[in-house]
Design a protein that fits this description.
Number of helices: 22
Structural class: alpha/beta
Mean pLDDT: 82
CATH topology of the largest domain: TIM Barrel
Largest sheet: 8 strands, parallel, barrel
Helix content: 25-40%
Strand order of the largest sheet: 13-14-15-16-18-19-20-21
CATH class of the largest domain: Alpha Beta
CATH architecture of the largest domain: Alpha-Beta Barrel
Length: 679
């Protein structure tokens, strides 16, 4: 009933077929190399189907051989007509290691071991066998020909005439691609195909040999014994035997195998996603950015942008306000006329602006600037650009006690005005309800300035996690649903979160129920770690993640563990994130695998799926510029512009059909990947 277990003590020296069953192999190492047909791959677990040609090219591998009888009894699957595939690699690895432990303890007859075997069988998916393909077009045609005419005599001369190629070239093709001869490929395949006749029919050996292309039974018996190890008659007499691997490099003695130990493996996390249209019903992840440019003196940063047009706010697709973090009151007293001209110039753009207001005088100044601009433009232009932007006024509740918010004009010449009131003090004092004065203001939003919070940067992630729970509890108490703005939020982020875009996204979703907007710096400096442009004016990971999240701001979503799903008129978007803090040596070193099933979605036929990978290698200039260059500010403008063209997530495009099973994404640590499925 249980599989036969082998230990591969040396690498296989030649390719062999798997006869009459299915082989699963795992290694004590994180991965091992295997040749399957013409392809050599490095994998963590191997599933070799009945009749497949394989060669494990490393030692120290444990092999579990499941005979066709076991597969048929447990799953009702005909392994001679179906291929099996792994549903969850990490789960299957753990299951096989546990099964190996039962084997060592000679406890395979226990109920726990039997249940485990059933779980292993259920971790396998079946699929109809596919026509053998090869990367070489000529060889692929020859393989199809062999499959079609396998049950009659096939010679090199027949192939030569059919494909107009010499017999020596055919032999070379098989030696070069499969590392076995043409005749060994054909005879071993015939033996593999004949096993289904021995298992599922009562035909005699002579009839089977004739049906499988042999001129007589003698040659068939010789070949069968060569590849399987016993004669067809004996093979048929012992159907429950599970060990028919004739590999000289394997050890099958229990006394030897039971001394083998699996080291503790660093297995990756796995997540199964079912794409179900009926479950995508949660609210969208919509928010706006307050892009912090600093004080009024920095208005030139965005008003006089001449070289890097990608920094032009007209090209920034996210809902955003240009946020000037100096109170208007401060700039009233300093070079008022000069600053007013700059602010007027800003108001003429199509972008929205966010301003801090502490007094009635500064509010009247803003209203006057908007009015002056409106009348000035109405005399020269048929229409005003200002109607394309909004104004958000951030009010300090402690400084506006005498200000009647109801008297603030909410529409200034077709420019909408929104009000947000500072509730930082209420949060610090952990008030369960806001003051009557704040409620009577009836603002559009509330905001918390984390720069003012006494405990500052959290010392550890556990502290930060507790802080977030308390914050959400406060927001729930005041019922701040989709109307809270976070200012200087990065002040309370642990540094390891800011350096991990996967963790940053995970943390950002904690407050999705309450979040309306948050501030982000325009340019990076020594004082801030979150910005949309870095110290050489190049796009950052936070820029790219904002663009990705834009896809989830218009339509309903489904929020799962480490992923978000949304659908639109043209397809689906799935955002996957790996918050593992491990620093990978190679970008393809993954610690989280996602298996995506599309059976309950609108996807039915072949679809195109694009993947955009975002991490410190892709989407940041750190993956482009050598770490030996410490002072990047010396780069000439032409190089900065060139870097901006190449700095982007890694894009790959794949074709997928759900009949082939789950779509698999292996995600490196500290990474995010955006899947776009085009219908």
């Amino acid at each position: 009933m249980f599989p036969k277990i082998y230990y591969l003590k040396d690498r296989m020296t030649r390719p062999l077929r798997c006869y009459g069953g299915v082989l699963l192999a795992i290694s004590n190492n994180d991965s091992f190399r295997i040749r399957e047909g013409e392809e050599v791959r490095e994998i963590s677990i191997a599933l070799i189907n009945e009749g497949n040609l394989f060669q494990i090219q490393e030692s120290n591998v444990v092999m579990f051989y499941f005979s066709s009888t076991i597969i048929l009894e447990k799953l009702g699957i005909d392994v001679f007509k179906n291929d099996l595939r792994v549903n969850s690699e990490v789960l299957l690895q753990n299951q096989l290691i546990s099964l190996f432990d039962y084997y060592k303890k000679q406890a395979l007859d226990t109920q726990k071991a039997i249940n485990l075997l059933n779980d292993i069988m259920n971790n396998l998916l079946k699929d109809q066998k596919k026509m053998t393909k090869a990367s070489n077009e000529l060889l692929s045609g020859i393989l199809e020909y062999i499959i079609e005419y396998l049950n009659i005599k096939i010679t090199l001369e027949d192939i030569s005439k059919q494909f107009y190629i010499s017999t020596s070239n055919i032999s070379s093709l098989f030696k070069n691609y499969f590392h076995i001869s043409f005749y060994e490929y054909v005879t071993s395949l015939r033996v593999a195909k004949s096993i289904s006749d021995l298992r599922t029919t009562k035909l005699n050996v002579e009839t089977i040999s004739l049906n499988r292309g042999y001129s007589n039974a003698t040659n068939y018996i010789i070949h069968f014994k060569k590849y399987v190890g016993i004669t067809p008659k004996k093979y048929r007499m012992i159907p429950n035997e599970s060990g028919f691997l004739k590999i000289k490099e394997v050890e099958s003695d229990w006394n030897v195998i039971q001394t083998y130990d699996f080291e503790e493996k660093n297995l990756y996390k796995h997540t199964h996603i079912s794409l179900n249209d009926e479950e995508i019903l949660q609210s969208s992840f919509s928010y706006f950015n307050l892009i912090d440019i600093g004080g009024y003196k920095n208005l030139d940063l965005i008003l006089d942008e001449q070289i890097f047009n990608y920094k032009n706010f007209d090209n920034y697709k996210l809902d955003s306000y240009i946020y000037i973090n100096d109170a208007v009151d401060n700039f009233i007293t300093e070079k008022r006329e000069e600053q007013s001209l700059k602010l007027r110039k800003l108001l003429k753009t199509k972008v929205s602006i966010a301003l801090k207001i502490n007094s009635l005088e500064s509010l009247k100044l803003i209203e006057k600037l908007v009015a002056d601009l409106h009348f000035l433009e109405s005399e020269h232009l048929s229409s005003s650009n200002i109607r394309n932007g909004n104004i958000l006024l951030l009010l300090d509740s402690n400084n506006i006690k005498n200000l009647d918010i109801n008297k603030i004009q909410r529409n200034l010449y077709e420019t909408r005005v929104f009000i947000s009131v500072d509730i930082t003090d209420s949060y610090i004092k952990n008030k369960e309800i806001l003051t009557h004065q704040i409620y009577t203001l009836n603002p559009d939003y509330y905001h918390i300035n984390f720069d003012s919070i006494n405990n500052g940067m959290q010392k550890s992630y556990d502290d930060f996690d507790e802080f977030h729970r308390n914050l959400n509890a406060f927001l729930e108490n005041i019922q701040a649903y989709k109307n809270i703005i976070f200012l200087n939020y990065e002040k309370i982020y642990p540094s390891d979160v800011l350096k991990n875009i996967g963790k940053f996204l995970e943390v950002s979703l904690y407050s999705k129920k309450y979040l309306a907007g948050s501030s982000i710096h325009f340019n990076k400096s020594s004082e801030n770690q979150i910005s949309i442009f870095d110290e050489i004016e190049n796009k950052t990971l936070f820029f790219h993640i904002g663009i990705m999240l834009l896809n989830f701001s218009k339509y309903r979503c489904f929020y799962g563990e480490s992923y978000i799903i949304t659908k639109n008129m043209h397809g689906y978007n799935i955002l996957l994130f790996n918050s593992d803090s491990k620093i990978a040596d190679e970008n393809d070193e993954h610690t989280h695998v996602f298996y995506i099933n599309f059976q309950n979605s609108r996807i039915s036929n072949d679809v195109i799926i694009s993947e955009e990978l975002l991490n410190s290698d892709y989407g940041s200039i750190d993956g482009i510029v050598s770490s030996e260059i410490e002072n990047r500010k010396i780069f000439p403008d032409s190089l900065k512009y060139k870097l901006s063209q190449y700095n982007s997530p890694k894009l790959s495009v794949n074709k997928y059909n759900q009949k082939t099973g789950s779509y698999t994404v292996k995600l490196p640590p500290r990474s995010v990947v955006m899947l776009t499925i085009y219908l």
